[in-house]
Amino acid sequence: MGLKPLAPVLASVLVGGLMLAWPAFLAGYPLLFSDSGAFLHQTLGPLMLWDKPWIYGPAAFLFHWHSTLWPVVVAQGVMVSHLLWLALRAFGGGTTPARHLLLCGLLAALTALPFTVALVMPDVFTPAVLLCALLLGFGRAALSRGEAAWLCVLGAVGTAAHLSHLPLMGALVVVSLLAGWRAAARVAVPVAGAVALLLVTNLLGHGRLSLSPHGATFMMARLVANGPGLNTIDAACPEAGWALCAFKGPGLDPYGPRACIYRRCPRDLLPSDIFLWDPASPINRNETGRPRDFGGRALSGEAREIVRATIAREPLAVALDAARDTLTQLIFRNRVGDTLERRHIGEGVLGHVQAFGPEEAARFQAGAHWRGDMPALVAPLLWVQEPVLLLGAIALAILGWRGRRNRLVLGLALGIATGLLANAFATGALSGPHDRYGARVAWLMVAGAFLLASRAGSGVDRRGV
Hints:
By secondary structure, this protein is mostly helical. The protein has helices at residues 3-20, 22-27, 36-41, 56-64, 70-91, 97-110, 113-117, 125-138, 145-161, 165-175, 181-206, 216-226, 228-236, 259-262, 271-277, 295-298, 300-313, 315-332, 348-354, 358-366, 368-371, 374-382, 385-402, 407-429, 435-442, 444-458.
C-alpha cells in the first residue's frame, strides 16, 4: 500500500481515536482515578507497588515522559480505534474510512467506551485484549503478518497490565477452539507472553516467581465481606496465630456482610474496599492501633491460608457468593459513574501530577474532573447508554444465532459473550462488583452488533468470500 492510499486510513484511525477520547477534551484534562497515582508512581518512585503489576505504568511512561498525560489518552484512543478498524475488516465485511468513523462515532456518542479511553488506567486494555484474541482466533485471514505480530505484542502487554485479564484470555483460548487448534494456539501466544512478563517483573520487583505475589489479600477481603472469611477466622483463631485473630468478632464485623449497618455505603464503595484501603482497618493497623506498613503485602501470607481454609470449610457458600457477585457485575454494574466524581480521584494523585511540573499540575486542577463538575456535564449524555446496551445485546444475540453456521460470525458473538462473562467473574467474584469493570467491556455488545449487521449488509457471505 502506497503512502497516498495509506493516508486516509491513518487519518481515519487518528480521528476515530480522538473521537473516543472526548471526555478528556470536555474535562480539559485526561480523567484520573485514585489508582492512577499508583501507576504514575511506578516510574516516579523507588518501589514496585505490591498490589499492581509493573506493566501499565511503564507503558504509559513511553508516552508521557513525566511531562504531560495527554499523549497517553490519545494513544489509548488510537489503539482502540485501530482495533476497531481491524475488526471491521475481519468481521464487518470490509472497512472504509467512512464506515470506521461511523462506528467510532456511534460508540463515542452512545456507550461508555470514551470514559474508559479517556481514563489513565489499565482498564482500556480489557476490551483491547478481547479484540486481540478474537482477531487472532477468528479473524486471522484478514490480517497481515505484521498486524498479527502487533496483536500478539499488544495482547501480551495488555493481558499483563491487569490480573483480571488472565482468566478472560484463558476463556477466549477455549472459545477459539471453535476455529481449530491453530486458532487457539494463536490466542495462547499473548497469554504466554503475559505470563512471562508477570513472572519476570515480579521476580525482579518482589523476589518471587509468581503471577501475583500478594493477590490473595484481595480474595481474602472478598471472602470476609461476604461472610465465609469471617467464619473461618472465628473458627480458627486464636490457634491459627494470624495477625487478624486479634480482631476476631467485633473487630472484623464492620467489614463483613453487615458493614453497611455501621456506615453509609455508596454504590461504588464495597465492604471489601473498606477492609483493604481504610487506614483504620485491621489490614492497615495492628491491634494496638499502630499503622501496619503495606498491610496488604504484609498479610498476604496469612491471606492465602485464610482463602484456602475458607474454600475448604464452605465450598458451596463461596461458590454461591461468587456466582451472585458475577451476575451482579455482569447485569447491574455497567454504567459510567464510579470514576467521574471528585472523590474518586482522591488526594494522592495530585502529588504525582505535580512531579510533572507546576504548569501540568495547574492544568489538572483547572480541569472539570478535579473541580467536581464532570458528573453534571455528562449527565445529559448518559441516559441513552443503558437502552443502547440492551438493544446491542439483543441484536448481537440475534445476528450471532442467524449466522451460527459461519464460524467467524459465531466466534465473534460467542467470544464477546464469553469475554463479558469472564470479565464479570474475574472482577465481581474475585475483587468486587464495580461499574467501571463492567463499563469497560459492555460496549463491545454494541460494536459486535454493528460489525455483524455491517457484514450482513455487505453480502460478503453470499459471495462466498
